Amino acid sequence: MKKHPRKSFLERSQMIIYRVEDSILVGLLLFMIFMAVLQIFLRNFFGGGIVWSEVLVRVLVLWVGLIGAMVASRQGNHINIDIMNRYLSGRVKIVVTFVVELFTAVICLIVAYYSLQFVQSEFTYGGESFAKVPIWLCESIIPFAFMVISLRYFLLSFINFKNFIEFRP
Amino acid sequence: MTLYLSALILFFLAIFGTPLFAVILAASILGFHYLGVNLSVIAIEIYRIADTPVLLALPLFTFAGYMLGESNTSHRLVRVTKAIIGCMPGGLAVVAFVACAFFTAFTGASGVTIVALGALLYPALTEAGYRDKFSIGLVTSSGSLGLLLPPSLPLILYGIIAQQMNIGKNVAISDLFLAGIFPALLMVLMLSLYGLWENRRNPIPCEPFSSKDTVAALRESIWEIPLPFFVLGGIYGGFFAITEAAAVTAMYVMVVEVFIYKEIKISQLPSIMRESMIMVGGILLILGVALASTNFLIDAEVPMRLFNLIQAHVTNKIVFLILLNILLLILGAILDIFSALVIMIPIILPVAVNYGIDPVHLGIIFLANMQIGYFTPPVGMNLFIASYRFDKSITELYQAAIPFMIVLLAALLIITYWPALSLFLIQR
After folding, report:
1. How far, CA to CA in Å, does A70 sit from each of A105, A142, B181?
2. How far is Cα B147 from Cα B159, in angstroms, rounded to an integer?
3. Which conformational region is residue B241 in: left (phi greater than 0), alpha (psi within -120 to 50 degrees), or beta?
4. Can you tell me the mean pLDDT for A129-154?
5. Which of A37, A85, A119 sits opposite B17 (nearest CB)?
6. What is the 8-class DSSP label of residue A49?
7. For chain A, what percent of residues have pLDDT higher than 90?
8. Which of B6, B9, B11, B13 to mutate to test the interface with A (most CBs of A within 10 A)?
9. Is residue B115 within 8 Å of B385, Cβ to Cβ?
10. Which residue of A40, A72, A77 is in closest CB contact with B248?
11. How confident is the model at residue B17 (pLDDT cuts 50, 70, 90)?
């Protein structure tokens, strides 16, 4: 019988988080396609549509985009210029990657902090976006996504830091 | 002093692989901090993504493109094109150009054309008797052919960015779609003529036309042939807005590939959706943060100052366009097309409009440059994809791609200096 190495608590919770995140992403995309097509049907065959549907779909674009960006951050798969890194190797490459990832994490943390402030003020003074959904709720994905992206880049940089310490040429 | 120092540090961070969205964010954080503006403004600008109705087209067309890339559409497309135009002079080479252009228009030039179509066409071309170097150059350079054809994502993105800019002239995406058609046809035509000339001493027998084959090929693709007509007919017939065409396309492609052709299993759908939305997320994130930095640039009157600076040295529109082409070719090789668009358009567009260049024409020039940048040595992305896919050394690919690059550069010159080629369909 094959022995499965037991996954640690952290690995298992990461797997669950990934799965939940993927399902939300796929669910929102399906919902977006469905609403967009439904709207065409309603308009052409029943002479009208759901009034707030257009706003909902636009907010969905933002949510799908930012959650997609969160998923891309798992392995640091964001669009970048990759011309110098090809010529680096060994320890130098690890150090450069570490700096780059740490920098990205810090920048995202700053943005997360200030967008949280923005959402807080909208919570107090903001109005409704569509169908009685408050506007701050639609915006709340911005600080959340940047927080998650920041955490993931901190994690990536931490792994690189570990690689640096354990590096044997 | 501090300003230049921070700009230098950001530049180095960027070329050593920092995600571009983080670089742009850092620049806007510095800029707004310098102007004494509360940084919450960045979140307000990112939220503008939800205030841009046309953006809906981006995830929908991307998803449709990924579905087409995952199914056997590439096989059917090559078969139909071969059946219809394979008997023309130029034969298979022309087939390859046309098929690649169609495929790229729908899937975006993300390298998938080389992987999906190149893998079919390269062996077919060498087998038909084309020289190896010609064949490999053809599939590499055709990987981005079709960027100017609707509904290509870069065209849509250019329209969205230009609409955010208040330049006084309207830049409708439906106009961009029309403007790209003849420049794209010109490229295909010139490449085909080059193909004929290249093989003049090595005449390749044409594929005989067979009505039986043609009918069979058409019947096989019957569900996918309507796609271009949806998009173009729907939009210009006044049935659909762009976003509606995107919604219908996404839904239609999903139904056709999953339930009719049955080439994609339902269980595969979530991962295709996920992959396509990762790409959308990357683009939208850069777009969102670039909206913030654009706002800063306009506040600081950067495009106006840049125009005055350039105007002091370059008064001639033609000279300006030449310099623009050189700059864009270099950028196209280094940056990927989406970041190049969101970073450069806010700076270049106001300057170009001041020189009297039509914003729609500028979009076509911009994308034509980017298209060549994809396979410009030494760092064009498609060279690496082709090298990896076909197991050729990168220097072999440089040599193979250069003749095609020269042909397309000639096409680029015509497109740049003959605005009517792009603009006559939209009458401006």
Report:
1. 12, 11, 36
2. 14
3. beta
4. 89
5. A85
6. -
7. 47
8. B13
9. yes
10. A40
11. confident
